[in-house]
Amino acid sequence: MKALVYTAPNEMTLQERPLPDLHAGEVVLKIDAAGICGSDMHAYHGHDPRRKPGLVLGHELAATVTESASDSIGVGQRVTVNPLITCGVCQYCMQGRDNLCSNRGMVGMSRAGAFAQFMSVPAKSVVPIPDDMSPVVAALTEPAATVLHAINLAMGKMHRPLPEARVLVIGGGAIGLLTAILLRAYGCRLVDLAETNALRRASAEQHAGCVSIDPVAHAPAHDSYDFVVDAVGAAPTRNTAFNCVRPGGTILHIGLQDWSSEIDMRKLTLSEVTLLGTYTYTMADMYATVNALHNGTFGDLSWVETRTLEEGVAAFTGLDRGSIASGKVVLLPH
After folding, report:
1. Residues 267-272: what's their mean pLDDT?
2. Residue 14 in this model has a pLDDT that exceeds 80
3. Does pLDDT of 258 surpass 80?
4. β pairing state of 225-230 and 245-253
5. What is d(CA 227, CA 174) in angstroms, rounded to the nearest whole number?
6. Torsions phi, psi of 264, nearest 5?
7. How many CB atoms lie within 10 A of CB 324?
8. Domain containing 20: what range?
9. Claim to verify: residue 133 and residue 161 sit in the same structural domain
10. Residue 45 — pLDDT band, cuts 50, 70, 90?
């Protein structure tokens, strides 16, 4: 089979790989669509020591079951996948917080991912999708579930209802754009999006109906937003979030471009700012997101671009150079 392999920092190579074996309790999938995530780009740049050269990346996918060693999932079933491989028995899994599983692995990190024509996963990780659901749309379940989980978490911590808030989303990649779209669907009228890439600013205005800001040319004003979502997670974006959040406001931190940086603990304390970290999604979030995508909550997703697997190398290069307007590129392996 063909597979797009991370072979060295800033290098992806199309290779021939053996077909995956079928193991007990698992299924083999024909990959119909696979999205390129920001964490895949992080690995591509050599910034993720957990993802080593020789690995097939990719954890956002839609697929069809071709072999099954499970009584619950049959051949021909159309699915997406929760890429978090969880143990099911630790305290977090028992609480329904399986995203925090103490023993978790991940597709495209601890095992081969979806930038290939076929892959295998535990049967318990698959999520059925409707027969009429586009594979490109279904492949966005994972990033959209990240957003849905995050916003639902934040709504439980805010002092006033979300639709009353003036909101800033930092970052116009897939997570930032999906966040802005979901906020609008949840009734937020005042949503701004800060993004340095002019192509992505235009896309955000067109598809999310928000006001886009170049934060370099026009830095967001001090104490101007009730709710700030950092969908980048770099030192400058964290500083921006703390500068522009109002006293009593909430910062939601999703992105992890930089692993560490200083934050303004004085403002956090004196202004009673709520800082929330959020990580991925639960299996319940995955099912809810399939429904949300299918019923149009996230819009028509016409901003998503597709490429063949053979064009995957060029897609990584284009995303790296900022020459692709879309916040999401989905590869089509067949």
Report:
1. 95
2. yes
3. no
4. parallel
5. 19
6. -80, 85
7. 20
8. 2-140+304-332
9. no
10. very high
